[in-house]
Design brief:
8 strands; alpha+beta; two-stranded antiparallel ribbon; globular; single chain
């Protein structure tokens, strides 16, 4: 049986509206609890849950995915045992069953400043062990198309490619929007620009800074200035006349557009 309706994308979503709770009820929530963005019900607050709540907000605000089509802690049978997947996303308006799963999200707690590896941004090979549960769940859901593993700072996106004899998980730069249309590769002509969630925008800035600082071995002050140069370069590029934007890298473009060519043309 289909789940009861909670909210649609056209409505302004807040946790209060999702749950139908009054301001007094929200203020009265017990210590150590927060409202789940998807269900509107109180859940235990911890490091991993905070990551899941940020991702749920981003799925709605940035990707246009309705909370009606999400479910937290969705059980997927993997190797004969039920595994709880942090967020499952279903075919719009469909029953929440494994057959209707289209995307899956696995979350882990975010590393804190000072933790080992907090500044090091891993690649897919380095994070392979952490990605096993997500890949197994995507393989188990026969119609799943996309997956995401995140600890709030690292984001590993996948597209599922199925053949008669095999299932492959292709790393991609990001997910398409809710209608699964990525539009043209030129951001200037994109019919649907993503509106960044403020919390996710701060996360994106931190990821860029950490990559420069951790992966390039730069001191923090030098990494800050390199990051600042990138921001101002993009601002300058966006202000060019005739929509002639050239400072970009395509998410689904194999080679993207080499940034070096913008500064050192042959």
């Amino acid at each position: 049986m289909a789940k009861p309706r909670r909210v649609t994308k056209s409505e302004a979503v807040t946790t209060a509206e999702v749950n139908g709770a009054s301001t007094d009820e929200i203020n009265a929530i017990e210590d150590g609890k927060i409202f789940d963005y998807i269900t509107g019900k109180p859940v235990a607050e911890n490091d991993k849950e905070r990551v899941r709540q940020r991702i749920a907000r981003a799925l709605f605000h940035e990707y246009g995915i309705s909370v009606d089509d999400m479910e937290p802690d969705f059980k997927v049978k993997v190797d004969g045992a039920n595994k709880k997947i942090d967020i499952a996303i279903f075919e719009p308006g469909s029953e929440h069953t494994p057959k209707n799963v289209r995307r899956l999200v696995v979350c882990q707690k975010e590393l804190k400043l000072g933790d080992r590896g907090a500044y090091k941004m891993r690649d897919h090979e380095q994070a392979a062990k952490d990605l096993d549960v997500l890949k197994a769940a995507m393989a188990a859901c026969e119609n799943c198309k996309y997956g995401l593993w995140t600890n709030g700072l690292e984001f590993f996106f996948f597209r599922v490619e199925r053949t008669r004899f095999d299932v492959k998980f292709k790393p991609i730069g990001d997910w398409p929007l809710s209608d699964e249309s990525i539009g043209t590769r030129d951001v200037a002509s994109h019919a649907r620009l993503r509106r960044a969630d403020p919390e996710m925008l701060r996360t994106a800035f931190r990821r860029c800074h950490n990559f420069i600082h951790g992966n390039e071995g730069m001191p923090k002050d030098a990494a800050f200035w390199q990051f600042l140069y990138l921001i101002f370069a993009k601002m300058h590029d966006e202000r060019q006349p005739n929509d002639a934007r050239r400072f970009w890298a395509g998410r689904f473009e194999k080679n993207g557009q080499l940034i070096d060519e913008q500064f050192d043309p042959a």
